[in-house]
Amino acid sequence: MTRSPLLIFIIGIAGLWAISCKGKKENNADPQTKQIQGKGGEKKPVKPVVPGKTATKTPNVKAAVSPLAVVKPVGLTSGTLSLQSTIPVVKGNLFKAVQAMSNRLYGMRARKPFGSVLLDMATGKELVRFKGVPRPIAISPDGKTLAVILGAHVELYRFATMEKLGELEVLMAKKPAKDAPPMGTTLFVSVDFSKDGKYLATGEINFGKFDSNHKQTLSVWNIHDRKRLATYGEEETDANVCDVRFLPGNKELVMVIVGGPGKTGSFSRRMIMEAGNMVMPGLALKAQKAIPFNIPCDECIDSWSVVGPYYAVSYSMKLDGSVNLYRLADGSPAGVLPFKKKAEDDSVRRFALSADGSMLAFGVCAEKKGPPDDFGNPTMDQIPYRFIMVDAKSFKETATLEASALDFHPVSGHLAYVKGDDLIVAAVSAPDKPLGTMKIEGNPMALGFSADGTHLILATDKGTFIYQAK
């Protein structure tokens, strides 16, 4: 039986197609599973070839870390701790503050030179070292981006790979100072992501000559292209912008300025973001009336902190050392915390709020001799010696702990604190009844739970200790 030329042509094309597919399948095999034959007949794995790299060099690829958004915080069950790893005090890893995020630890140095470092919590391996005046980092709502304040600029990184995405620069950027900022320079001091992930807010200080006429700036940026969209400025004598925050709804911000005798002293100001139009696109910031703090202009502010829905401010110059709370949303007074000075140098500098928002703790500090500054001058550290716990609604005292460091668990009703040379985990409802205790080394400098609640980090002058919390 003879075949038609058309049928022969179709069969030939099909055969060529099958051979091509077979070769393509072999070429697309996972390079990790490929094998080659050695001299003795044994098979050896072939190393994958990365584009842009030669086959003779194996690239150092950093392991990906899941974003915070997919790491669901885990609550404690037994309140016990087990030491996982220790980061020795070498290479500047003596931290005065720590932030722990999804297997990574950010530490701000307590000794010169200025700077901070990001470490792998499990191994203590250094991932990135930052130079510049260190401040707390901010994390985008989806957990994918880090914003790191480093003096005259803000650096943005992709969290999973620590790939640098770019920088934000101040309006009046001058040559960054190596140590302390001289007059005439401009520095970033605060950064916050909007809850919808579209914007980034920054607070900046321009230090005027002769320590006067400081300019305070709030800016809103587009996260994706890092373009400045809107700016609002204040001029205050002897004042600093210490916080900028997005309020719920992503359309309003609060700018908090703290200082001495200025036009209005210390105050907060709300800003409303207004979208542009066809003629003038972009964003505009509409400033609302300044809300002064309830103190005379000549009073000294000892510390300030955002605690849940409140802005906590303590005043060192008042005889009673009173601590006032203001509502973050509108700046109105919320209450006064129960604190009386026992010594002239007593001050309040540490604040923490329980996971359910029912309990507020604040640390009473005393001055102790600290390390020399970058110019060799002696310094005094404010070290807590007791924490007062109050009901977060009535602000009435519920307990007092003899503790030098304290932090609440981010999810469950537990807290951790250091008393003497003991690290203690207890229930918020019964803080004086330890569930678990571990001996520690050194004087505490920072204590904090990780964002996912699985670890507790204690930084002392002897090292940084990472515990698994169960």
Q: What is the overall number of helices?
A: 1
Quote the distance from N terminus to C terminus.
Answer: 80 Å
Number of strands: 35
Q: Can you summarize the main beta sheet?
A: 5 strands, antiparallel
What does the average pLDDT come to? Answer: 76
Shape: globular
Q: Strand portion, in percent?
A: over 45%
Q: Which bin fits the share of residues in helices?
A: under 10%
Which secondary-structure class do the elements indicate? mainly beta
Provide an overview of this structure.
The protein has 470 residues and is mostly beta strands. It contains 1 helix and 35 strands. It has one helix spanning 5-27; strands at 35-37, 43-45, 81-87, 95-101, 104-109, 115-120, 126-131, 138-139, 145-150, 153-158, 163-169, 186-193, 199-206, 214-222, 228-236, 239-246, 252-259, 267-275, 283-287, 291-292, 301-307, 310-315, 323-327, 333-337, 347-353, 359-370, 379-391, 397-401, 405-408, 414-419, 422-427, 430-439, 444-449, 455-460, 463-469. Strands 16, 17, 18, 19 and 20 form a 5-stranded antiparallel beta sheet that branches. A hairpin with a 7-residue loop joins strand 13 (199-206) and strand 14. It starts with a helix and ends with a strand.
